[in-house]
Write a sequence for this structure.
């Protein structure tokens, strides 16, 4: 049976974890819409292994990913049939070449590599990445509709791409109901990490991307540790510190105060959000800002950069500071860590704010885009 809507997700891989979450949450929420009666299917291929089966050189894995992205996945879609195709990751916008563009929707999450190459974000990207990213983004203008996950992303799309403004529709992401207050989960992760009672936690959710601005956080954390007068640990979830970041942590004398969890499942992540005294989110740029939203849903105060997307998501429920300003970030973190009334107020505001971001709302807005095409 040909579905009304076919969701096209990137191949499953650790690098595409957030896209896999988006695909799964949207698919489930669309199916749960009480008044939407369209048929739906999800296509998400497994990560291919061609040359990398032989092991050895890590570059073989990169070759496999590129071959799947640009050759085998587009080729496989030529035989697919649907009334609407929804490409869930702008990094795969070129898939529209294998589809009828008048029946294609593409979700754009952010334009970080493009903005870095334009000098908007103080981050270096390779010329090859910049060129391939621009080539992929050029396909956005072919689609019937482009979903932007925030007003900030929509504004960036209008400024830096050729997508017609009337084709850009803002549909914010949601936060899973699993992100909520869970004191028992907090105790469990504290115990598993061996943190002494009374230790305060600054939480960072990190990828290896430079735009996550870890250096600024390390400098701010070093300042705060000297001021708060009690044990303080930086818990880093996700990618390990880069070599230069680890060297900076050593120079600042904070290496021993950093607990790295590595990649963890969502249940453990919820535990860390609940255990944390504050989430630090000093990104140079974001298309949305899931970690602040997840932290707010758990009642955890948020201190973040005052970039457009994060300001849009947090509203007045977070403390926002200038980008790449360690002194301002340290001051805001110190305020939350030393002022229980402020921390409680931010936590309460965050809980209220997070209730606005449901996957049901995301699904409803997305379904409306499909219905415009389906008629």
């Amino acid at each position: 049976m040909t579905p009304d809507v076919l969701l096209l997700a990137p191949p499953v891989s650790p690098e595409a974890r957030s896209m896999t979450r988006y695909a799964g949450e949207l698919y489930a929420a669309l199916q749960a819409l009480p008044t939407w009666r369209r048929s739906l299917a999800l296509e998400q291929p497994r990560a291919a292994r061609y040359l990398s089966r032989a092991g050895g050189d890590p570059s073989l894995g990169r070759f496999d990913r590129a071959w799947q992205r640009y050759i085998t996945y587009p080729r496989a879609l030529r035989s697919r049939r649907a009334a609407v195709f929804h490409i869930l990751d702008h990094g795969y916008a070129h898939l529209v070449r294998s589809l009828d563009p008048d029946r294609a929707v593409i979700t754009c999450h952010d334009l970080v590599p493009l903005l870095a190459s334009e000098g908007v974000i103080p981050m270096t990207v390779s010329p090859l990445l910049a060129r391939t990213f621009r080539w992929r983004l050029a396909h956005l203008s072919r689609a019937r509709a482009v979903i932007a996950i925030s007003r900030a992303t929509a504004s960036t799309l209008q400024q830096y791409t050729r997508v017609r403004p009337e084709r850009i529709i803002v549909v914010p992401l949601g936060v899973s109901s699993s992100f909520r207050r869970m004191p028992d989960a907090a105790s469990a992760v504290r115990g598993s990490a061996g943190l002494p009672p009374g230790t305060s936690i600054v939480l960072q959710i990190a990828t290896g991307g430079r735009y996550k601005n870890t250096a600024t956080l390390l400098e701010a954390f070093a300042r705060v540790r000297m001021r708060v007068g009690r044990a303080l640990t930086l818990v880093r979830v996700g990618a390990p510190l880069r070599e230069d970041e680890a060297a900076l942590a050593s120079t600042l004398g904070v290496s021993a105060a950093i607990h790295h969890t590595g990649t963890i499942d969502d249940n453990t992540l919820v535990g860390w959000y609940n255990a944390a005294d504050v989430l630090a989110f000093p990104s140079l740029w974001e298309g949305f800002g899931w970690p602040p939203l997840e932290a707010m849903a758990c009642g955890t105060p948020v201190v973040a950069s005052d970039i457009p997307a994060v300001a849009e998501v947090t509203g007045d429920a977070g403390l926002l500071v200038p980008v790449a300003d360690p002194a301002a970030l340290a001051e805001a973190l110190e305020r939350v860590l030393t002022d229980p009334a402020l921390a409680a107020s931010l936590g309460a505001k965050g809980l209220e704010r997070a209730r606005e971001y449901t996957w049901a709302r995301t699904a409803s807005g997305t379904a409306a885009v499909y219905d415009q095409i389906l008629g």
Observations:
- The chain has two domains: 5-174+358-374, 183-354.
- The chain is about 45% helix and 15% strand.
- The domain at 183-354 is CATH 3.40.50.2000 (Rossmann fold).
